[in-house]
Write a structure and sequence with these properties.
Blueprint: H1 9-21, H2 34-47, H3 52-60, H4 79-86, H5 88-99, H6 102-105, E1 117-118, E2 125-126, H7 130-146, H8 151-167, H9 174-184
Antiparallel strand pairs: 1-2
Helix pairs in contact: 2-3, 2-7, 3-5, 4-5, 7-9, 8-9
Length: 190
């Protein structure tokens, strides 16, 4: 998933300032506000040992909205603005994550099979680069698992993502999969 480098405080602070300037700290989200969720997602990715660009992508993953969260701070036509803040590699991951047509992509995910990805903005269909797809899955784990703070959310995550996450066992880091099983139990019990 790329070179392992520490996420600098300066890069993190620039991204948080950008998010605040667009109201992420005032946007309601599941357990608090969107900024708190974005920071938590970034922190999980950092704890799991991911490279700085993926951590920054985790911090900014909702800037264009997602298939599951309609609020967007930038239109995909304004990608250069986010690129200036977090860099091209991290921004490309943010766009890829935000553009995922989940109903099309998720059912295809198997450990050994290539997945056709559908971009919900452009409606193009393609087989993504393996490294980018693995980063997408790692970010998917962090995004969903960051929300798990109550027994009801554990049950929801287990029911909604259990089968998908089991199929991703060999496509995400051991740390990400271990975090999932620590929160939701062994997938064989799902």
């Amino acid at each position: 998933m790329g070179e392992r480098m520490q996420l600098s405080k300066d890069a993190y602070d620039r991204a948080v300032a950008f998010l605040k300037s667009h109201g992420a700290d005032r946007t309601p989200h599941v357990n608090s506000n969107l900024l708190a969720h974005l920071e938590g997602t970034c922190e999980l990715l950092r704890q799991w040992g991911n490279p700085a660009p993926l951590c920054l992508a985790g911090l900014c993953h909702a800037v264009y909205g997602t298939d599951g969260f309609a609020v967007a701070f930038l239109d995909p036509s304004e990608r250069s603005q986010l690129c200036e803040v977090i860099g091209a590699e991290a921004e490309a991951m943010v766009y890829f994550y935000a553009s995922c047509d989940r109903r099309y992509v998720y059912p295809q995910i198997e450990r050994a099979a290539p997945v056709e990805f559908r971009d919900r903005f452009s409606e193009t269909v393609f087989v993504p680069d393996e490294a980018l797809f693995r980063s997408f899955l790692e970010l998917t784990f962090a995004n969903e698992l960051e929300l798990v703070t109550t027994p009801a959310l554990v049950d929801y995550t287990r029911e909604t993502f259990g089968v998908l996450f089991e199929r991703c066992r060999d496509l995400v880091s051991q740390a990400a999969f271990a975090h999932f099983t620590a929160l939701c139990g062994e997938p064989t019990l799902i």
